[in-house]
User: What shape does this take?
Amino acid sequence: MGKKNIDNIIELSNELRWQIGDDFHDNLTESIYADAAHIVTDCVQVEKGKKRFRLDAKIDKIVTSKTLGFPIMFLLLGLVLWLTIIGANYPSSLLANLLLDTIHPALKNLSATIHMPWWLDGFLIDGVYLSVAWVIAVMLPPMAIFFPMFTLLEDFGYLPRVAFNLDNLFKKSGAHGKQALTMSMGFGCNAAGVVATRIIDSPRERLIAIITNNFSLCNGRWPTQILIATIFIGAVVPSSFSSLAALFSVIGIAVLGMGFMFLVSWALSKTVLKGEVSTFNLELPPYRPPRFWKTLYTSLIDRTLIVLWRAIVFAAPAGAVIWLISNIYIGDVSIAAWLIHSFDGFGFLLGLNGVILLAYIVAIPANEIVIPTILMLTVMVTGISAGSGAGVMFELDSINDTGDILRAGGWTLLTAINLMLFSLLHNPCSTTIYTIYKETKSAKWTAIASIMPVILGFIVTFLVAQFWRLLS
Amino acid sequence: METKVIHSACETCPQFNAEGLKKMGVNTDNFDFVVALAGNPNTGKSTVFNALTGLRQHTGNWPGKTVTRAEGGFEYNKQKYKLIDLPGTYSLLSMSTDEQVARDFILFGKPDVTVIVTDANRLERNLNLVLQILEITDKAVLCLNLIDEAKRNNIVIDTRTLARDLGIPVVATSARYKEGIPELIQTIHEVANGTIVCKPHRIKNVPSNIEKAVKTLSTEIEKEFSGITNSRWIAFRLLEGDTQIIEALKTGELA
Assistant: This one.
């Protein structure tokens, strides 16, 4: 036994490879298929006379048709969002009542009775507890509705059809058709979408899919979109249409995200990630009636609670940071106020403001906490007394109050639209960034994937703001 | 007196041994055997995995859902099994990440049993992967899943002939409805303990010039590594110029 013998074997294999010619791979594959065909003839029988009515084929004809495929896709997306928007309201206010209006004062009372120092009380109860409570109240209901519905569609077998419909668009933008699947996963969570890109074989196309996954509006951003659309977009139309207007604007943002995904994929595949589009075969699996209760249960356990847990883990320290920067003073301004004023000029150029920019920096760990951060910072700057006051993250009882606070903070329709755009186009959350690094093992691509969307966000909001001001 | 409630006729059969089964979830300490789950995408590997381990690994009706390998365990007749759910692949001949994960595990991880999950509705296409796996390992069980759908499609599969042709045991299952799972566990148990000895099918119909080259090469490999069972497959890979296999040969990882 030794290295020499092994070298001989390799030498021999090189020699033989020349002798048998370069169609070895094809020959071998053909042999395997021939064997398979042979085995099957002996043991598989199909009763021909009783061919089943092919319901699958009929459904596929409709949902993947050139004319109806896209409308059905948007209709389903709209339906899922609609049910999420409508359904999440009640449990959300219920939870807010419980966690913020009942438990929070109780905790404050408790800390007062045991004479907790003011800073510890503020740090723990107004910072950490409130941020966690807010995330639960706002995030849990939409997730508990959105994820199971998405999972039901997935179990039914609809996702591969989406991939089929979008394949052509992806091909035209120089990307892999399976990116449609990773994009759909991104609608739940971008980190999950990035991991899912492993189904793409070609490294070039996989990189494109990773970099552009952030354009899928993720679960952390849906509530922001829905809330802002309801307050500001819903308000510009007659009240009977306001939910509908809000719904369409949210779908519009989601579709815009897909547009950016195609555009950026195309730009990448024409410049730094040049290459051929690889072919692949996509199996359209049979439709399977989802096992309703089981799906409900598993999606609640596997997805909802895991994502919620992550949000809580990140919200707690973020709440602490917000409380700290609002309560540590340098001279007579708090760190937060100082930062907001220095961002204000740049914010104005983008049709946003310093509060929003600071909120996005604080919320890098989790998109879920952008809105509570914005509200808290706004209250602090405008000095309106509402809820628990300065340096405290809070949930307002009604959407109208939230709107009033924001308007008092100088928000206009432009601010709202640009916030929705910026929420779509900004850096991925820290979990996603870390996942991108783990998947690409490249600091360069991680940096590109993180910074490119922010730059796009700056450009888009800047342009919108300039045109808006020019025209109004 | 203790009475035993019998839910179905299956429970009276010696094959059925529900008491011997303990689902262990993610606890995979001190296992006696390693079992790999391989198969084409969307054949229900993760559902089989969940049925065996009691875990609730997310399943979905689209190909390519499992991209990383998941691990779980179960105990049967006092022996502990560690189960690895491999990503679904159509073949092991190309070099995409998921195919590599699957192939490397079967090749280097040397599982005690490889359960190949196939879609009974699309057996011929699935056999492509089955035949490739049978070149690598000789301890395998064919799990003919989605048999309920096949029945509805009026497809009848003679599992005995199939088992004889492939040289490995074949178990028809419908993992979604937990049908055939006890039989599958019993079969895994028997293959792991050597009660069932497989004589796996090896790829025939190879053009004679290639067959000759493969034979020459595999004889040399067998001389070098005595007792090696997949010399033919290594020969295939060497002829293909697979650098990873050449490397593994040099480092002795394959022995």
